[in-house]
Specification:
Layout: H1 3-27, E1 37-48, E2 55-66, H2 74-109
Antiparallel strand pairs: 1-2
Length: 110
């Protein structure tokens, strides 16, 4: 798998985790002493080698944790859902473009 598809795939997974946490927070907003789930994402780039022989893991690492204080924040959860949706659509577009490009290259080569 190329680094481009690896990055896009982990981006899709990160968006899914973010959407799930936001949905969990909305569903439990009325629960007494509920502590919201928070999601943090970090880019990972572990590369060994140089040039065309470079290999390694690239993408997004995601961690879910609980907020320190109880209470709902529905406005933030809605923003998180919208951002997760946009991230999912963007990463899906990268995968589609990558697939289309590879298909075109294989057609030219054949």
């Amino acid at each position: 798998m190329s680094s481009l598809t690896s990055i896009a795939q982990t981006g899709l997974q990160a968006a899914q985790v973010r959407m799930g946490a936001a949905a969990h927070n909305v569903a439990n907003a009325q629960t007494p002493d509920f502590r919201r789930q928070t999601v943090s994402a970090q880019a990972i780039a572990t590369v060994s080698g140089t040039g065309a022989s470079a290999t390694g893991a690239q993408g997004v690492a995601v961690r879910t944790s609980q907020a320190t204080q109880p209470g709902a924040n529905l406005a933030q959860d809605m923003v998180d859902q919208l951002a997760a949706r946009q991230a999912f659509v963007a990463n899906l577009g990268v995968l589609k473009t990558s697939s289309d490009t590879l298909g075109s290259l294989l057609s030219v080569r054949a």
